[in-house]
Amino acid sequence: MRGLILLIIFSTVNIVSTAQPAHRHSLGLGAGAVYLSDDKIFSPGLQLEYAYHFIWGTTPLHASACTELIFGEERHIGLALGLGFTPIGNLDLGIGPGVMFEGKKHYFCLHLSGSWGFDLRGFSMGPIVELAHTGRHFHMLAGLIFEIDF
């Protein structure tokens, strides 16, 4: 029993690290072209994202909240929560549930994202690719994101 308790304590210490990320918070604004699978067209889109960065063990992670606005014949508004990680360098990958509002309809979706940020003294900028899939249709954004770290 004592060995089991020590194993649990040791494992917990390894999971909850005292290491700190380079910055705790970031606020990003992305802009790009959005492909809408239903309409088979490209429309301009904006994305605003807040992220809280933390370390779990030795893995840099972030929890985020995102809103998207897609301009077109019918305005699309998306809201998503996510969990992401940084596997190498400045590559950020994320996944999370979301909801898309299209006119008077709404759809639950899976939101996937990937970006590469180039550090520029307190903020970063780089390419971003995002996909929101409802099971019936999807939209994909490709563009640039600008992030302020604080």
Write up this protein.
The protein is mainly beta and 150 residues long. The chain has one domain (19-149): Porin. It is 9% helix and 66% strand. The chain contains 1 helix and 9 strands, in the order H-E-E-E-E-E-E-E-E-E. It has one helix at residues 2-15; strands at residues 25-36, 41-56, 59-70, 76-85, 91-102, 105-116, 118-119, 123-133, 138-149. The termini are far apart. Mean pLDDT is 86; it is low at 1-18.
Features:
9% helix, 9 strands, disordered N terminus, globular, 150 residues, mainly beta, single chain, Porin
Gyration radius (Cα, Å) is 18 Å
> What characterizes the major β-sheet?
8 strands, antiparallel, barrel
Distance between the termini: 45 Å
Shape: globular
SSE pattern: HEEEEEEEEE
CATH overall fold name = Porin
Mean pLDDT: 86
Quickly name the level 1 CATH class. Mainly Beta
Count all strands and give the number: 9
* Unreliable sequence segments: 1-18
Strand-residue proportion: over 45%
The largest beta-sheet arranges its strands as 1-2-3-4-5-6-8-9
> Would you identify the CATH architecture?
Beta Barrel
Which range best describes the helical content: under 10%, 10-25%, 25-40%, 40-55%, 55-70% or over 70%? under 10%
- What is the domain total for the residues? 1
Note the total helix count: 1
Structural class: mainly beta
Give a quick summary of the entry.
Helix content is 9%, strand content 66%. With 150 residues, the chain is mainly beta. It has a single domain (19-149), classed as Porin (Beta Barrel), CATH 2.40.160.20.
